[in-house]
Design goal:
The complex is a heterodimer of chains A (95) and B (969). Chain A has helices spanning 35-44, 84-90; strands at residues 2-5, 9-12, 17-21, 52-58, 66-72, 78-83. Chain A is α+β, with helices and mostly antiparallel strands and 95 residues long. Chain A has one domain (2-90): 2-Layer Sandwich (Folate-binding fold), CATH 3.30.2270.10. In chain A, the strands form two sheets. In chain A, strands 3-4-5-6 form a four-stranded antiparallel sheet. Chain A has a two-stranded antiparallel sheet with strand order 1-2. The termini of chain A are far apart. Chain B folds into five domains: 1-155, 2Fe-2S iron-sulphur cluster binding domain, sarcosine oxidase, alpha subunit, N-terminal domain (Ubiquitin-like (UB roll)); 162-289 and 419-455, FAD/NAD(P)-binding domain (3-Layer(bba) Sandwich); 293-394 and 477-550, FAD/NAD(P)-binding domain (3-Layer(bba) Sandwich); 638-728 and 835-863, Alpha-Beta Plaits; 872-969, Beta Barrel (Elongation Factor Tu (Ef-tu), domain 3). Chain B is 21% helix and 27% strand. Chain B: Belongs to the GcvT family.
Chain lengths: 95, 969
């Protein structure tokens, strides 16, 4: 597969390490009330769609960017590639 | 031997003769020959024995689809089994052997199987060798494997090199027949970067095998002219002898280039084959079509060939398989074989299935001698040496179907064609698209290239097609000749007959995937290139379904067989994975050190001295000398990560379970890292070198993973933190210097004062050594001794180990390896890999209090889960044998005295066992249920596998200096 890196352009997927569902970005607050339950759901309950999937890829043999890649798991078509940092910020993460 | 069957014409170089042997007999051929064409030219139709029935077989094709003519090529370590004689390019000195026969090809004792064929129908093995079950592996299977089968391996190391390479292009064209050449000319003339790959050594495809003209030239000459023009273009890469074996994602294709297979041995420095990864923007499949047989009785004798192949042997190679030829066809293309052979002076008789004529039987033990036909209710037998069969042509849809797309049935040509858009960016042209005339091939080739150019934003040159034949291809499907009692072959490689397909149908294996597995139709080296469509057509007629309803099996890469060595490339032996050497490696090698693989690293395991015959002597000496005076160990392999930024401390508080933001500048702290699920992930010492600068160490095994996770936390979880990371594992050579004399030794090298007052326990400093070389010193201890780790830029590592050893002479300093390191850490009760096993919590390790609940760190929340905080759960303990003479065994399980060794009574296990020279006995660490409450208890440690059982005493894991007085000294 070829991943169109937002900074470096098209790169072979061999340069990357795959992690999984980009929902991992939405890590709950560990000090909040009921954290044990929210963390359980966060860590163990994830979708495994046959179709479009937003997933985390790490450019380990490259610039070390974590990317959010939107990929169709049936066809391997990649429709969007974003820097995970931008996605995290857009989802309200900061420090 | 003479080339008795050689006739004039063809694209062979008759000015040179090549000598080769087959089954020890020497023959002559010419450059341009394949092994099969040369053998046929010498009148040798018999080339092999079939898989199951050991039937005499010759080639049925002239290409990579060949099911029968499999030979062992070359000898010694280069022996290659199951090589298709039809694609082996002849070279001088080639030697080949037939396979699957004993004692000889002409007389094969196992041919008795053929007489017993009634017993060997589909499913025979499954039904017959069912019972008793244990006999399958030990008795039945080895016998069956010896009796049936293909070639054998050399069992020697492959002496050749294989390479991998990467290519990029605008347009990849698969196949260099008329469609591929025309596409390449169109795209090449437009300036696009083109790769033209063809599995044959001579480009041109069917143009080399036909007699009709293209652009006023012979087809072969027109092809040669096109190839010459393409070769002159800098933007076109011509790749003959290159098979595209698979269509991957996003325009990536895998290709095998046979660089040296046409030579006796590869030229010096050249690989035998290259596995290419081709990146293309667009691709054209111009891979042609494969002819299919018709099933009739005894249709597998040497001399019975596919019609197009028989014609190719005559036209391209100047070979007459026989002088008297019968042609059995259901389409117009078969008639072309008849007319071409007639023009070459052969006696030809046509049996046209469309006129109700059919071949009902053949004769000839080791080769065809006569054919029996039926026409208008009348049967007739006549003598002939060759029978050309054409059941029609199947477009080579394989590559276009590699993404699980199913090909589409086309009634006009009675064959499957590639589905539209099954592979984005790939278009089929010519015969591969079901367009069989030369004119149509040229036209669709040009059109496909024009389409690709438009997609690429390039303008195509004006279309300039040469004149070419545009004859009809009228076909009336004819799959098999019914009515007979004998066997009619569908898949010759796997000896699958009409009867087997009928049996599969009777037993309800009617789906094509079941049909394949039950009968083995379409398996092995040819993957059913000639037999598959015929087999499923027969199944369709039995079930009363249409062929498209019956469907095809899934097409998967590789298109043709690939040598394992090609897939491995250079990744074998010492080069299987990268090897990382420590800065002290050269010095240690000079000392005769024993090395151990730790991930990719080679680390010193111990350093034997003269007279030491057993590893324990060396390790005990290293431990005792370190504890008595001073020892040096290369710890460069531990991961080192520089962490800088105004939020560096806050960042570490997130990734470590304990707190680092409060660490004073110039101090180190042991850090515990959890996974998000609360299990311990990694540990190490992290030092604060400045207000905004830390240096983290990780375990050797997790150096890469921890770095990856830190980047994950930094970018995905805390994107606004001001923190930067860089791995410095390879930037610093780091040595542990441990023992009562460690400070005295180091002070000789360090330019600054490192007294206890200046550099107390857990202190760190940036210093200089040896008169100005920048270095770092950390007063940390894994061994429990007064100890330091000293780091210098890696290029000074070799000098530093030599200097440490030199300066250490007055203290009798030793250099110790990973074994002594392990002994000392167990004596001190430090956890390492065996305890950080991916199942253990901080609480299990006795480090539960390190997990701060005041801050949100990775793993903090889930480490509080009830199940992980079971008061009856595992705790880290120290273990000693009650009788010091007894040895402990790692992996042994704890049991109460008198308890049966069953899982219900299991109390835990020993994780790490060493011999402690300090205590003079075997000691261990282990996880024991309620271990913290069991100090002083006596239990049994049982290892059922080793048959060992030892009475043990549970003690503190800190066997040595439990108060830590030595390391603070």
């Amino acid at each position: 597969m070829i991943i169109n890196h937002p900074i470096l352009g098209p790169r072979d997927s061999q340069e990357f390490v795959y992690l999984g569902d980009a929902a991992l970005i939405d890590r709950p607050d560990g000090l909040a009330e009921g954290a044990l339950d929210t963390f359980h759901d966060y860590l163990y309950l994830r979708d495994n769609p046959a179709g479009l999937h937003r997933e985390l890829w790490y450019h380990e043999q490259g610039d070390r960017s974590w990317l959010v890649v939107t990929r169709n798991t049936l066809t391997h078509e990649i429709t969007q590639v974003e820097l995970a940092r931008d996605v995290a910020r857009a989802r309200g993460r900061s420090k | 031997m003479t080339q008795s069957n050689r006739i004039p014409g063809g694209q062979i170089d008759r000015s040179r003769s090549l000598s080769f042997t087959f089954d020890g007999v020497t023959y002559q051929g010419h450059p341009g020959d394949t092994l099969a064409s040369a053998l046929l030219a010498n009148g040798q139709r018999l080339m092999g024995r079939s898989f199951k029935y050991h039937r005499p077989r010759g080639p049925i094709s002239a290409g990579s689809e060949e099911p029968n003519a499999l030979v062992e090529l070359r000898g010694g370590a280069r022996r290659e089994p199951n090589t298709r004689a039809t694609v082996v390019e002849l070279f001088d000195g080639l030697s080949a052997e037939s396979q699957n026969r004993w004692p000889s090809l002409k007389f094969d004792a196992m041919a008795v199987n053929d007489r017993l064929s009634n017993f060997f129908t589909a499913g025979f093995y499954y039904k017959t060798f069912m019972w008793p079950k244990a006999f399958w592996e030990k008795l039945y299977e080895p016998i069956i494997r010896r009796a049936a089968g293909l070639g054998s391996l050399s069992r020697e190391e492959d002496p050749d090199q294989y390479d991998k390479g990467f290519l990029h292009c605008d347009l990849l064209i698969i196949g260099a027949g008329p469609a591929g050449l025309m596409a390449a000319l169109t795209a090449g003339r437009a300036g696009a970067r083109v790769i033209l790959a063809d599995e044959d050594f001579r480009m041109g495809g069917r143009l080399n095998a036909e007699t009709h003209e293209v652009g006023g030239l012979t087809g072969a000459d027109w092809a040669a002219q096109a190839v010459a023009e393409l070769r002159s273009m800098a933007n076109v890469r011509m790749m003959p002898r290159t098979t595209i074996i698979g269509a991957m994602d996003h325009g990536i294709y895998a290709a095998v280039e046979r660089v040296s297979d046409h030579l006796p041995v590869p030229l010096p420095g050249k690989p035998r084959q290259i596995l290419w990864r081709i990146y293309s923007h667009r691709a054209i499949l111009a891979g042609g079509a494969t002819e299919r047989p018709i099933a009739f009785e005894n249709n597998d004798r040497p001399g019975i060939l596919l019609a197009g192949s028989l014609r190719a042997y005559a036209n391209r190679w100047g070979v007459a398989v026989g002088r008297r030829v019968a042609v059995f066809t259901n389409n117009d293309d078969g008639l072309r074989t008849a007319s071409d052979l007639k023009a070459k002076g052969m006696e030809v008789r046509v049996i046209d299935a469309r006129k109700g004529e059919e071949v009902v039987d053949t004769a000839g033990r080791l080769g065809l001698s006569s054919v029996t036909i039926r026409s208008g209710g009348r049967t007739e037998t006549f003598a002939c040496e060759a029978l050309a069969v054409s059941g029609g042509w199947n477009p080579n849809v394989n590559i276009a179907s590699h993404h699980r797309g199913r090909p589409v049935w086309n009634d006009t040509i009675a064959a499957f064609v590639p589905g539209q858009g099954d592979i984005p960016g790939l278009e089929a042209a010519g015969a591969a698209a079901g367009r069989f005339s030369t004119r149509a091939a040229l036209e669709t080739g040009a059109a496909a290239a024009e389409g690709a150019l438009a997609d690429l934003g390039r303008s195509a040159p004006a279309r300039d097609l040469p004149t070419a034949e545009d004859g009809p291809y009228a076909i009336t499907p004819k799959w098999y000749v019914g009515g007979g009692k004998g066997r009619a072959w569908i898949d010759q490689q796997n000896d699958v007959t009409l009867k087997d397909v009928k049996l599969a149908h009777q037993e309800n294996y009617t789906s094509v995937e079941h049909l394949k597995r039950y009968t083995t139709l379409g398996m092995a080296t040819d993957q059913g290139k000639t037999g598959n469509v015929l087999g499923l057509a027969v199944m369709a007629s039995l079930t009363g379904k249409s062929i498209p309803q019956t469907g095809t099996t899934v097409y998967r890469p590789p298109y043709t067989p690939v040598a394992m060595g090609t897939l491995a490339g250079r990744s074998r032996g010492q080069e299987f994975k990268p090897k990382r050497l420590t800065p002290s490696h050269k010095w240690a090698s000079e000392q005769g050190a024993v090395f151990v693989e730790v991930g990719q690293w080679l680390r010193t395991q111990w350093l034997p001295r003269a007279g030491e015959t057993q590893w324990r002597e060396s390790v005990d000496r290293e431990v005792l000398a370190t504890r008595k005076s001073v020892g040096i160990c290369d710890v460069t392999t531990l991961g080192k990560i520089d962490i800088q930024g105004t939020d560096a401390g806050a960042f570490l508080d997130k990734v470590y379970a304990n707190t680092f933001s409060t660490l004073a500048v110039g101090k180190c702290r042991y850090g515990l890292m959890l996974r998000e699920d609360g299990i311990v992930y990694d540990d190490g010492t992290t030092a604060r070198l400045g207000q905004n600068e830390y240096v983290m160490t990780t375990t050797t095994a997790n150096a890469v993973l921890v770095f990856r996770n830190l980047e994950y936390a930094r970018q995905c979880l805390y994107p606004d933190m001001d923190v930067q990371l860089i791995s410095t594992t390879e930037a610093w050579a780091q040595f542990s210097v441990a023992g009562p004399n460690a400070r005295k030794l180091l002070q000789k090298l360090v330019d600054q004062d490192i007294s206890d007052a200046e550099l107390p326990y857990m202190g760190c400093r940036e210093i200089t050594v040896c008169g100005g070389l920048r270095a770092r010193i950390f007063r940390i201890s894994f061994s429990g001794e007064l100890a330091y780790e000293i780091a210098v830029p890696t290029r000074y590592g070799d000098a530093l180990i030599r200097e440490l050893v030199e300066q250490g002479r007055e203290f009798d300093a030793v250099v110790y390896g990973t074994e002594a390191l392990g002994v000392m850490r167990v004596e001190k009760g430090h956890v390492a890999g065996n305890e950080l096993n991916g199942q253990s919590t901080a609480l299990n390790m006795g480090l539960g209090k390190m997990v701060s609940k005041k801050k949100d760190s990775i793993g903090m929340v889930l480490s509080q889960r009830e199940g992980m905080n079971d008061p009856n759960g595992y705790r880290l303990v120290g273990v000693k044998p009650v009788d010091p003479a007894q040895k402990l065994t790692a992996g042994s399980h704890f049991l109460e005295k008198g308890a049966a060794p069953v899982i219900a009574n299991d109390l835990g296990w020993l994780t790490s066992v060493v011999h402690s020279p300090h205590l003079g006995c075997s000691i261990a660490l282990g996880y024991l249920k309620k271990g913290d409450e069991r100090r002083g208890q006596r239990l049994r440690s049982a290892n059922l596998l080793a048959g060992a059982e030892v009475e043990v005493e549970i003690v503190s894991p800190h066997f040595f200096d439990p108060e830590g007085e030595r390391l603070r000294g």
